[in-house]
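Assemble and predict.
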Amino acid sequence: MFYICSSKTNTTRMPSISNKAVAMPASPIRKLVPFADAAKKKGTKIYHLNIGQPDIETPASFLNAVRNSDMKIVEYSHSAGNESYRKKLCGYYKEYNITVDPSDIIITCGGSEAIEIAMLTCFNPGDEIIIPEPFYANYNGFSRAADVVVKPIRSFIDSGFALPPIAEFEKAITPKTKGIMICNPGNPTGYLYTKAELEALKEVVKKHDLFLLSDEVYREFCYDGKEYVSVMHLSGIENNVILLDSISKRYSACGARIGAMISRNKEIMNAALKFAQARLSPPSYGQIGAEAALETPRSYFDGVKKEYVSRRDFVIESLNKMPGVFCPKPSGAFYCIAKLPIDNADKFCQWLLEEFSHDQKTVMLAPATGFYSTPGAGINEVRIAYVLNLEDLKNAMVCLEKALQVYPGKTN
Amino acid sequence: MFYICSSKTNTTRMPSISNKAVAMPASPIRKLVPFADAAKKKGTKIYHLNIGQPDIETPASFLNAVRNSDMKIVEYSHSAGNESYRKKLCGYYKEYNITVDPSDIIITCGGSEAIEIAMLTCFNPGDEIIIPEPFYANYNGFSRAADVVVKPIRSFIDSGFALPPIAEFEKAITPKTKGIMICNPGNPTGYLYTKAELEALKEVVKKHDLFLLSDEVYREFCYDGKEYVSVMHLSGIENNVILLDSISKRYSACGARIGAMISRNKEIMNAALKFAQARLSPPSYGQIGAEAALETPRSYFDGVKKEYVSRRDFVIESLNKMPGVFCPKPSGAFYCIAKLPIDNADKFCQWLLEEFSHDQKTVMLAPATGFYSTPGAGINEVRIAYVLNLEDLKNAMVCLEKALQVYPGKTN
């Protein structure tokens, strides 16, 4: 593996690192960074459609609360997060018709830690978790870290990445299956699950008594008047459900590292709190900002949503106009997956950075292969994050169109 | 186990939580909190000597940097932490004669995450790690989370918790032993390892080709002119050594959640970076403060050290004057372990909160049993964190002395 230096070149011996450290996947989104750096050095401007780092400003309420903080000592907070914040968060969830109390919530270091703690709490090494693919690539990493085995079930671009048929879940279930994980609205697909899909999922969860983990960090980003249905709305599986959340996208505050793990199952939360206590507390400044940001006026989100809808509409229309390109229109989040007339998305994305430029500009995309577990899946698909302003998106789409005309590995 | 609610009382079935979630120890330091809350409700003032939350102010450089931050978007940072911070950190370590470059450093969410990532990187489930006990209780939690088996080796109060004889390490080593972990200066003992002790440890590490993890977050707190020797100073085992660090105590900034995992072994750091990438980035505000705090003048630390030395001297002298009490004088950190003339430290600490008060005041201590892995060890020992001002410490020592006179379970 290219990222491992041989220990033979070192002057001393060393013990071998863990099997999971070897097997741990490198970030598929970040592995093209060296090629991007080289392109920048050559003077090429790069439009970054490869990462979910929004260009939207963090709400002033968040930033001002941190700036005006008068702490003299930056102390540990409660291991579950500040109680004042958790109390107010209950009001936030209530607006989405999700009824929880502060003891159902543990504030975490980003949504990432919520996933980590949930996995440690629920799964033994070797347990299996079913995840519809393509899925957020880091689920692979968290599963590796917890020695949990991911069993992907394929969803397809032609149906816009709708939930795979329940029969596919039934086929994948073994005696080792202990949970199902979804992301809704979806990263990387932008797909928003319908009530009917979630009710169908509920029946499988109930029948086989599984944990249902749901990453719903994009709930603010649902479009076209479509309904956001949370797993917390499903009745009869309250003890099976864990909600994984984050303020990173909601308030464009990815660096604050504030997320939450939420469940009405007291046994889960009592156990999760022990993991939370071991790592002491979530970040203090992020909590101050996040608590203040709960006062963010609805108009902020209306503005953000309007902006993303116009970006989405422009990108989807542009993509589908290009010969041989197909991109379903997503109803949520700020990603889409497009099928391109290319031989290999990893090669294409690297070529865009290494060999292509149009007017000294190029575009950086995420090869979709990194979001699939099934080898070979997504070979001609890319994920596009529409996190740039319309002007930049226009230039990026021109680059992509020109690139597809001259790419040596094009297939039509 | 008292902390698990029975799932039978719930309306729906639920899958069972993981074995490690059940086995995960509750925080021994935080488990007395409900008794403290009840005492406070009765109007009793509690002197908190139970936790390592310093009362020292965070340096102004840190607080001002956060307050003056002009971020408009709180973005993800580099997964390994801001490069500007890592570069300057190299200068900080250089002052301690530790030569590292920025690629040897991953900034983590507190020292806790540094331990977590180091364990995931080095150890397979079932691997054994030797740790001299008493040790920082959360090492147990991190080991459970990573399915690593802790093999404690006993150190003793009579020798001030010096490193156990190397023969004891040799006896404890099995084919599954993959590492040794130490804390220097020590929490909970305050013991500062000598150069000779670390050189002896080096030979064992070399002979059996083990990882050596060293938690050195208290390096600023070494007293009486004694020398701080880091595992990073040991030559010939550069590829075996991992330094675990944190700014929590250094800058009295526990809530910032900024730590670091450091190794000169590129294979370790490449693998660790994959775990770091999966969780995206460390907290942005904490990094801003921590980078600015590197400018903290030496006089700040001189003042802090002087303060801790006078607190330590007062506490140790007071303790050793009490009949039947013995407390070795530590050379580092801000903890000591005292042997008391009592039947059971857990009972005693709870009794202090539930049944005792002197002039409406009492003291909260950490039973040392939580810092030992060996059952029954530390039964008559408590950890005292001298993190309060001298006036409060005086009152606390009066409380303790009076309490020992009337405690029903006293043994002399």
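The first strand of chain A starts at residue 45 and ends at 48.
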